[in-house]
Design a protein that fits this description.
alpha+beta
């Protein structure tokens, strides 16, 4: 394993990395692990799922962003995380939906790169998109601590509204230079190839 391909560097103090449980682990399609964002040596978990799933998603969105194909929908006037919390917990007539697989999806989910599940201490959504100037934006936003509220419970509704009003703000937002995004894409493709090769080899060993 070339560990350098698991570390995606923005600058000397800011990067994210894919965590291995053990240094001798063989990563295949079903290897479940976390991605951590490192800011001045402080680490925050921003994804936890199968490595192939978030690698494929990263490859797709990076490719689109480098081609200027991830500009925000006209309905998105605030940051994506703000709308995502609203989509999960309240009605907002400004939120635009499109037809998904048998149901309507908020248009903003097309920019969703990763998210943490309830396993994480604090939950986040990570986004990749092009701003109005064509810059590639990498953004991490918090999810309401309970994720979903009981909309019939006035206490929960009030707590959520207070959090959105007083506590919610994007956790991390950076412009990713094109050359950095291109390097990340190279690493991602190498990682996907490694996952493919390891999965194939392990499958062949099981057949023996």
């Amino acid at each position: 394993m070339k560990y350098d391909m698991l570390k995606f560097i923005l600058n000397s103090s800011e990067y994210f990395f894919i965590n291995l449980h053990n240094t001798n682990d063989v990563i295949d399609c079903c290897y479940r692990t976390s991605i951590f964002l490192n800011l001045n040596n402080n680490q925050t978990e921003i994804a936890n799922e199968d490595i192939q799933e978030y690698s494929e998603r990263f490859d797709l969105l990076l490719t689109l962003a480098l081609s200027q194909e991830l500009k925000l929908h006209i309905s998105i006037k605030k940051d994506l995380g703000f709308y995502w919390n609203q989509d999960m917990n309240e009605k907002n007539p400004a939120i635009f939906y499109e037809q998904g697989d048998g149901h309507l999806d908020w248009i903003g989910t097309k920019y969703l790169l990763w998210s943490t599940s309830g396993e994480a201490f604090q939950q986040f959504g990570t986004w990749l998109y092009n701003d109005k100037f064509g810059n590639i934006i990498f953004e991490v936003t918090p999810i309401y601590p309970k994720t979903f509220i009981n909309k019939e419970d006035p206490v929960e509704v009030k707590a959520y509204q207070e959090w959105m009003k007083k506590s919610y703000k994007p956790f991390y937002t950076r412009i990713i230079p094109k050359e950095v995004a291109e390097q990340w894409l190279k690493q991602c493709k190498l990682l996907l190839q490694t996952i493919h090769d390891n999965t194939k080899r392990l499958d062949e060993q099981e057949e023996l």
